[in-house]
């Protein structure tokens, strides 16, 4: 299933490729850079940043602000990422991508915490999610994570991983036979 951002990404990449003189609009670059960050495609974000003309980055302060977020993500600096996200007043159409990016980064942080810790301090979760203590406590309650009696330690439960689809040996052999037959014909 293709998300709206995946479709928009394809459209923006096409706009960049078909732009007159090979230079797209600043809006195209800003949205594309934000979408790459949303998709956690940091390599493409970095290459896009390097190919955006200096005249565009200097005339549109939103693009360097988006890249500042990308740099924090690249360094896996979650606290810095939330700070960079909050440090700029985003304009539409980039603002809705940035909001989705922030939610996705936060969701990945909660999943990471759930998979990585048996116990963790509330302050660590606050730092990793960019939320207030009250908001973190509410989300921990919603996730049914155990709050210890000291009031500052939490025992998260790992997120449920979907079970992998198993293919029987006969199915695998059938597919291999079809493939070899296809290659021979």
UniProtKB/TrEMBL annotation:
Please indicate if the UniProt record lists Glycoprotein as a keyword: no
Domain of life of the native organism: Eukaryota
Q: Which residues form a coiled coil?
A: none
InterPro entries the UniProt entry points to: COP9_CSN8, CSN8_PSD8_EIF3K
One GO cellular component term, please give it: COP9 signalosome
Which PANTHER family does the record associate with it?
COP9 SIGNALOSOME COMPLEX SUBUNIT 8 (PTHR13339:SF0)
Q: Name one GO biological process term.
A: protein deneddylation
Keywords, comma-separated and alphabetical: Cytoplasm, Nucleus, Signalosome
Report the locations given in the UniProt record: Cytoplasm; Nucleus
- The principal localisation class reads cytoplasm
Q: What is this protein called?
A: COP9 protein
């Amino acid at each position: 299933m293709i998300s709206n951002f995946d479709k928009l990404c394809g459209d923006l990449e096409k706009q960049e490729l078909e732009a007159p003189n090979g230079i797209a609009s600043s809006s195209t670059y800003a949205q594309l850079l934000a979408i790459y960050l949303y998709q956690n495609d940091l390599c493409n974000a970095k290459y896009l940043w390097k190919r955006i003309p200096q005249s565009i980055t200097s005339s549109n302060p939103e693009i360097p602000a988006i890249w500042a977020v990308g740099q924090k993500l690249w360094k896996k600096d979650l606290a810095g990422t939330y700070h960079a996200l909050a440090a700029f007043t985003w304009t539409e159409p980039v603002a809705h991508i940035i909001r989705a990016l922030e939610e996705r980064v936060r969701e990945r942080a909660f999943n990471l915490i759930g998979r990585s810790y048996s116990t963790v301090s509330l302050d660590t979760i606050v730092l990793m999610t960019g939320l207030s203590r009250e908001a973190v406590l509410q989300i921990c309650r919603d996730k049914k994570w155990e709050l210890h009696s000291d009031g500052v330690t939490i025992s998260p439960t790992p997120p449920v991983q979907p079970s992998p689809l198993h293919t029987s040996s006969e199915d695998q052999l059938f597919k291999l036979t079809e493939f070899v037959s296809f290659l021979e014909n």
